[in-house]
C-alpha cells in the first residue's frame, strides 16, 4: 500500500470514528459525549468491581429488604449508569407516552409539565423534586412554572451534573440540588409548597417510608404528585413469563421490588395523604411509552460498538460494556412489560396533605 493510499485510509478511519463517536455519540440533549463516559463517583479502575458488587445484591436478596442497604445499592447503580443514560437517552431519566407529531424530547417535557400543573404551584413558591437525577424534569418544571425547585438525589455525581446543567440552562436561580437520602431528608417540617416524584420512589425499600418523609416536609394544604412504577391488574404471579419480565426490570433498574398498582393509594392514605386522583397514564388513549425503546434498538447497537471500542482502547472504564449490555437487556424486559400490559412506569397519584384546620 503506497503512502497516499495509507494516508487516505487512515483519514477515513479517523473521520469515521469522529463522526461515530462525536456526532452520533452525544445524547439528544447534548449533555454527554461517548468519549466522556465514566463511572460517576467511582474511579475508572473500580467500575468493573462495582458492577460485580451491584449484582451481588441479587445473590443476597435479604439485603434488599433492609433500608440500610438499599441506598448504597441505588447509589452504586446510578454511578454506573448516569453517564450512559445521559449519553444515550437524555437528561430526563424517565418514560412518557408517545405523542404523534411530537419529538421524544417534547413528549418528555409535556409529561413533566403536567406533573407541576397538577400540584397548582405559583411562581416563586418552593417545591420538592424527590429523586431528581441530573435534573431534566426539574429544569423543565422550573421553566414552565417559574417555581423554585429543590431536588434531592442519593448520588453525589448526579448532584454535580445537575448543578452544571442548571447553570448552563440559566436556571440556577430557580433550581437547587442537594445530595441526600429521600428517606431522611435534610429539610424542616412544612417546608415546601408542593412536591413531585417522577419514577423515583420505586427505589425506596418501603413506599410508606418515603411517602411519610415527603408528607413531613410539605406544608399543610399542599399537593403531591407521583408517577410510580408498578405491576398492573394484568400481572399474574403464577405466570413464569410475567415473573421473568418483572424480575428483569427489577434487577436492571436497581429496584428492591416492584409494587402492585393497588398498593399505592393505600400507602399514601396510611401516612396521612388525601387521595385526589389516581390514574395509569399509560392506558389508552395514551400511545405506547415503550415505542421509544423499540425504535432505539439500532441506536443501541451503534452505541454498543462505540462503548466496546472506547473500552478496548482505554478511554471508557473497564466494566462499561457490561453496564451497557445490562441496560439493553433491561430495555427488552421493559418493552415486554409494556406490550403485555403487566407493567407501567406512570401510575399517577395526586395527593393532598390535609390543611391544619382539616387535621384538627
How do you describe this structure in short?
The protein has 360 residues and is an alpha/beta fold. It is built from 13 helices and eight strands. Helix 2 crosses helix 3 (70-88) and helix 4 crosses helix 5.
Walk me through the structure.
- The protein has 360 residues and is of the alpha/beta class.
- It folds into two domains: 1-36, no CATH class; 39-359, 3-Layer(aba) Sandwich (Rossmann fold), CATH 3.40.50.150.
- Helix content is 48%, strand content 16%.
- It has 13 helices and eight strands.
- It has helices spanning 3-23, 47-59, 70-88, 104-118, 136-145, 156-168, 207-217, 240-252, 261-270, 291-295, 297-312, 320-340, 356-359; strands at residues 126-130, 148-153, 175-179, 192-198, 218-231, 259-260, 274-280, 343-352.
- Strands 1, 2, 3, 4, 5, 6, 7 and 8 form an eight-stranded mixed sheet that branches.
- Helix 7 packs across helix 9 and helix 11 packs antiparallel against helix 12 (320-340).
- The radius of gyration is 21 Å and the shape is globular.
Order of helices and strands: HHHHEHEHEEHEHEHEHHHEH
Largest sheet features: 8 strands, mixed
CATH names the topology of the largest domain as: Rossmann fold
Instruction: Provide a count of the helices.
Output: 13
**First-to-last CA distance:** 88 Å
- The first-level CATH class of the largest domain is given as Alpha Beta
Q: Globular, elongated, flat, extended or rod-shaped: what is the shape?
A: globular
Overall mean pLDDT: 89
Amino acid at each position: 500500500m503506497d503512502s497516499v493510499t495509507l494516508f487516505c485510509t487512515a483519514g477515513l478511519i479517523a473521520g469515521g470514528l469522529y463522526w461515530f463517536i462525536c456526532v452520533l455519540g452525544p445524547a439528544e440533549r447534548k449533555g454527554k459525549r461517548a468519549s466522556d463516559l465514566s463511572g460517576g463517583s467511582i474511579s475508572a479502575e473500580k467500575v468493573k468491581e462495582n458492577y460485580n458488587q451491584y449484582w451481588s445484591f441479587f445473590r443476597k436478596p435479604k439485603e434488599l429488604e433492609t433500608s440500610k442497604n438499599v441506598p448504597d445499592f441505588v447509589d452504586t447503580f446510578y454511578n454506573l449508569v448516569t453517564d450512559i443514560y445521559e449519553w444515550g437517552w437524555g437528561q430526563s431519566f424517565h418514560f412518557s407516552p408517545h405523542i404523534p407529531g411530537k419529538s421524544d424530547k417534547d413528549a418528555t417535557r409535556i409529561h413533566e409539565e403536567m406533573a407541576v400543573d397538577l400540584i397548582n404551584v405559583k411562581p416563586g413558591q418552593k417545591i420538592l423534586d424527590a429523586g431528581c437525577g441530573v435534573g431534566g424534569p426539574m429544569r423543565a418544571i422550573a421553566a414552565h412554572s417559574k417555581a423554585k425547585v429543590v431536588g434531592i438525589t442519593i448520588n453525589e455525581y448526579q448532584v454535580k451534573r445537575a448543578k452544571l446543567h442548571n447553570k448552563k440552562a440559566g436556571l440556577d436561580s430557580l433550581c437547587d440540588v442537594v445530595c441526600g437520602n429521600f428517606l431522611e431528608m435534610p429539610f424542616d417540617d412544612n417546608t415546601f409548597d408542593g412536591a413531585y416524584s417522577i419514577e423515583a420512589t420505586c427505589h425506596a425499600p418501603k413506599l410508606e417510608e418515603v411517602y411519610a418523609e415527603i408528607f413531613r416536609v410539605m406544608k399543610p394544604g399542599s399537593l403531591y404528585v407521583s408517577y410510580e412504577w408498578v405491576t398492573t391488574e394484568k400481572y399474574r404471579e403464577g405466570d413464569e413469563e410475567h415473573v421473568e419480565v418483572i424480575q428483569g426490570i427489577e434487577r436492571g433498574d436497581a429496584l428492591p421490588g416492584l409494587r402492585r398498582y393497588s398498593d399505592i393509594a393505600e400507602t399514601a392514605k396510611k401516612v396521612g395523604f388525601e387521595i385526589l386522583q389516581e390514574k395509569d397514564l399509560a392506558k389508552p388513549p395514551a400511545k405506547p411509552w415503550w415505542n421509544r425503546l423499540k425504535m432505539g434498538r439500532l441506536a443501541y447497537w451503534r452505541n454498543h460498538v462505540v462503548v466496546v471500542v472506547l473500552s478496548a482502547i482505554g478511554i471508557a472504564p473497564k466494566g462499561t460494556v457490561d453496564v451497557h449490555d445490562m441496560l439493553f437487556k433491561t430495555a427488552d424486559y421493559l418493552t415486554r412489560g409494556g406490550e403485555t400490559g403487566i407493567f407501567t412506569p406512570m401510575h399517577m397519584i395526586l395527593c393532598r396533605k390535609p390543611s391544619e384546620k382539616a387535621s384538627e
